[in-house]
Structure formats: C-alpha cells, structure tokens
Amino acid sequence: MALTLAGATGRPIDTVPARPPMPTLADQNRAELTSTRFEVLNELWDDALAEWMAEHVDQERLAAWGPPDTSVNPLVDLCRQLSTPGLYGRRPTISNRTPADELIAPGGLLDRAGLFVKLQQVQYFTIGLGDFLVRVDALADSQRLAYRLVAPHNVYAVSDDDLPDVPIELWELRLRWWADRAQWVWTWDQIRLVDEERGGEPSYRSILASSDPDEVGVDVSEVFLGGDFVGDAYPFRDSQGTPLIPYSWYRSQDAGLLWNHNQKRGATRGTFNAALNWTYAQHAARDASGSTIFAVGVEEPSLTTRRNADQDRRALRTLTLTPGAMVFLRASQDAGQAHFFQAGPGANLDSVAGYASLYEQKQAVRWGLNPSDLSRLSSNPMSGAALFVSTKGRREYARQLEPLARRADLETIRISAALASRQGLTQAPERGYTITYQEIPESPPEQRERREQLSWELSQGFLSPLEAYQSLHPGASRADAEAAMVEAELDARRIGQEVERLATAEGLPPETTDDD
User: Fold this and answer.
1) What is the mean pLDDT of the chain?
2) pLDDT of residue 156
3) By the 8 A CB rule, do 152 and 168 touch?
4) How far apart are the first and last CA of the chain?
5) What is each CA distance from 205 to 100, 168, 224, 229, 358, in whole angstroms?
6) Is 258 exposed, middle or buried (0-12, 13-18, 19+ CB in 10 A)?
7) Contact between residue 74 and residue 276 where contact means Cβ atoms under 8 Å apart
8) Which DSSP string corresponds to 352-412?
9) Which is nearest to 210 in space by CA: 29, 11, 21?
10) For the segment 52-70, what is each residue's pLDDT rounded down to a tens digit?
C-alpha cells in the first residue's frame, strides 16, 4: 500500500524527490543550519539529536544510555514563553485617520484571514530562527485575503546594493504536485522587481528546481501559476502601479543584513548539549546510581544468567535482580572461600543533574535575559521542570521586539491593502496606519512606579502631555495623540456643560454640584 501525503490527498509520497540545493553555497549552508533549527522548534528533532550525540559519544556508551531525551528543549521553552502572550496574544489595535474599517476593524479582512492568530506562530519562529516570512495574497474568487507562513530555509533572496536588508528578488522553494505527470516536483516561485532576462521588467514565474540537469530551470509557470506574469502582467503592485514583493519579512533583530540566521546558532548548539546532558542524567538515575557487586569464588545460577553478546571479546555474565529477590549461589569447586566486593554508584547523580540544570539555565542568559528573571517551576533540579521566564522578563523582551514587529506588521497591512484594492475587495488606504500592541499587564507596584515617574517628568517640564500619552500608548503617532487628547478635552467640556445645565434646572448653585 503506497504512502499518501498527510493521509488525505491520495497522492503518493514514496516518490518525493530529494530536496534540491540552494542557488549559492552560502545560502545552502544557511538553509541547512536553519532547517535543523526549524526541526527543533517543531519538536521533530529525534534524528538530529541522535546524530549530534553520535558525534560526541562513542556508540558503546550510547547503547547503555538509552534513547535521547528530546523532552529537554531550551530553545522551544524560551521561544514559547517569550512569544506567549507576546505581541499577538491579544489582538493589536489598528487605526487610520482615513476610514479603513473594512480592512482593519474587528471582523474585517485581516481578521477573516486569521492574520493575528497566525502572527502568534510567526513571532515564535522569528524569535528562534531570526527571520520568518509571510506571503500575502488577495483571492478575488473567495473575496478574502490569504496569509501563508514561509520558513526562511525555503527562501533565496537578493538584496538592493544600497539597502542590504531590502530584497529586490525573492525565490520560494515549493514542493508541488504535477497532475499531468502524476508526480511531485520541486519548483522555485521567482519574483523579480527587475528581471534582466525580461528586459528589466518585473516578473513572476515558476521554474523547476530539479536535480536533473535537463530539467532544472525549465519554466512551468503555465502549469502552476496559470500564466507567465511579466511587465504589465505583473500582478503585485500598489495603488501607484509600483511593483512590490508580496512577502513581509519578520526579524528578531536589525543588523542591517538580509538574514539573521547566525543569531541563535549558539542557542541551538546549547539545546543539543542540554538534551545530551539530561539524557546522561536519566541514564545515571536509571542505571548508574546503584551499587555494583563483584562475586569471586562462586558460580551463578545456570538458568538465570545473561551473557554478553560478544563473549569472545568480553566474557561478562550478569544477573537481573529485582528488589526483595533472594538468589542462591553455589561455591566454585576450583576456588577457595567466596568473596564479595561492592563498588559505589557509577555516577554522582546530584552532581550530574546539577550540572545539567546549570548548563540549561545558561542558555537563557545568553539570550540577554536577566538571570533574576529566570527560575524553575520546581526547586528540585531532578524534577525536569522547564525554565520559567518571569512576567517582567517576557514583557521587557516583547518591548525589544516591538519596533521590529511594528515595521513588519505595517508592511503586511500595506501589501494587504494594495492587493485587496487591486482585486476589488476594499478601497482602504495603503499607508497612514498605526498599531498598538496589548502589553502584559504590569503589577500594581510597577503601575504605581510608572505613574509617579510620568507625573514627576510632567511637573518638571521634562515631558509634554503628548509625550506622556505616547508613552502610555506605544505606537501612537503625535497626530493620534493630539486627536485623542482634543477629544478627551471636548468630552470633559460637554460633560461639564451637561452637569451645569442639570444643576441649573434643579435650582442648585453650580459650586455645590460637586458635593452633591
């Protein structure tokens, strides 16, 4: 019976071709590094961890250790906590002074496409991988937007010479089912803002990424895209007709480079080593913490012995005992008086577990987290409880990522508005948006300290009311702050006038209304 993809499509996967290499050696090295980290973050890293341990521990020892302990995963623990609730645990507030409710209001096009739900996962992968991409599409037939998450090891990009972190060409590696051939093929979806092969026009096409030299680079745009989109036919443009790349790029840092894949390279190695350490600790707890007894001058019971498989190299004979068992041994005829020697445990379990726990905690410190913000859910180092990042630590980390996320989110909204407008889904503007993220609530002492600081700065003239408003509402522009404060002032005046009117109607002096 043939295997089927995802068990549902009915398409056999036993003939899926090997993944083709990236166009350059540097990108191939980046893809290999990032794909391994992607497996770790998806917790599908059993084979990768087994290979790592085989490189560092000889096979005879590994056989005694048992299966690798993949439950220890500092990379997942930290990325999951730092992205929960993160910036998208609660829906951000998006506004525009130009009406755009059809796009950004709750229940609008962004929400119906599940953008902010998907961005929870995007932030998780961005923290762990350094980069992550979102493909934006506007579907005229279904009258909706669509967002597809794209892992960085499936992307090749070329940047602008003067702007090394801005792509002008992007290829996405995709595994596609070719119905006419009844087979799986790898393709590159190529997007070029300036295609030199097509007279400098923008282009969007699909080519084969086969390892067969006779097929590699063959244009299959008609098969998978429904046409060859070059020049005026290029579909991804803004309201001015300027070509754009329909991918938004999320980053965990801005180093002025296209990729940030080396950012968590040490953290990935640390995760593999932490799993190796805890695998050995489990072995120590299970097999090496008990005493070993040597018997000299006696014969073992013949029916209960277990001999080593390689008897020519090592004639070791052992007994498997359970607590409370009684075993009768017969004195050897060619030996004198029997002797028994007891050797202590093969490993100091407390020291092994303590080292493994300390090593795991050091991985979090390397992320820039304050050691005071780190703890374990249990004080017992052998509990196996994951590292815990405090609320304060998660909030501070979210604040570090906020400017980068805001830039990427605004680009996602800009692309969404442009493509949706071209497909007739909305006439929302492409620019002028502000986005405010819902922070992890501060504790009462933190709130009090923040209010006191803002009040002092206002009283000393170090801060204007507008700046104070922006401090309390990150992401709000100066124009938004002015509009909000004017509206609040107008509301206060209207309420004051209404109170005065009611007081006059009741025949009360205006100055007594507050007491009443």
Assistant:
1) 84
2) 98
3) no
4) 84
5) 32, 15, 9, 6, 51
6) buried
7) no
8) HHHHHHHHHHHHHHTTT--GGGEEESSS-GGG-PPEEE-HHHHHHHHHHHHHHHHHHHHHH
9) 21
10) 999 999 888 888 888 899 9
Predicted pLDDT at 364: 72
CB atoms within 10 A of CB 403: 12
Give the β-pairing of 298-299 and 305-307: unpaired
Distant-in-sequence, close-in-space partners of 34: CB < 8 Å, separation ≥ 6: 129, 151, 152, 153, 261
Kindly state the tokens that stand for 458. 């206002």
Q: Which helix (H) or strand (E) holds 512?
A: none
- Helix spans in 57-206 (H): 59-65, 74-82, 101-104, 109-112, 115-129
Nearest to 400 by CA among 377, 422, 370, 380: 370
Tokens, residue 251: 């980053």
53, 273 contact by CB (below 8 A): no
Q: Which two tokens stand for residue 83?
A: 């992205």
Q: At 120, which amino acid appears?
A: Q
Token pair, residue 468, equals: 């104070």
Residue pointed to by tokens 């107008």: 490
C-alpha span between 362 and 55 (Å, rounded): 23
130, 264 Cβ separation under 8 angstroms? yes
Q: Is 254 exposed, middle or buried (0-12, 13-18, 19+ CB in 10 A)?
A: exposed
Q: Quote the Cα angle for 292-293-297, to 5°.
A: 150
pLDDT for residue 2 is more than 50? no
Both tokens assigned to 148 = 């597809």
HSE-up (13 A, CA, CB side) for residue 494: 6
Indicate the Cα dihedral angle 222, 225, 228, 233, nearest 10°.
140
217 torsion bin: left (phi>0), alpha (psi -120 to 50), beta (else): left
Q: Within 13 Å and on the Cβ side, how many CA atoms surround 395?
A: 10
What pLDDT digit, counting tens, does each position of 79-104 carry?
999 999 999 999 999 999 999 999 99
State how far the Cα of 466 lies from the Cα of 482, in Å rounded to an integer: 7
Pairing of β 298-299 and β 330-331 = antiparallel
Report which of 403, 405, 404, 415 is spatially closest to residue 113, judged by C-alpha positions.
415
Residues in the chain: 516
Six token digits for residue 31: 């893809």
With a cut of 80, say whether residue 477 has pLDDT above it. no
**Longest distance between any two alpha carbons in the chain, whole Å:** 122
Give the C-alpha separation, 345 to 355, whole Å. Answer: 18
* pTM attached to this predicted model: 0.78
Which residue type does 343 have? A
Pick the closest to residue 149 from 166, 171, 169, 126 (CA basis).
Answer: 126
Residue 138 dihedral angles phi and psi, to the nearest 5°: -115, 120
For 340, half-sphere exposure in the C-beta direction (CA atoms, 13 angstrom radius) is: 8
Residue 175 exposed, middle or buried by CB count within 10 Å (0-12, 13-18, 19+): middle
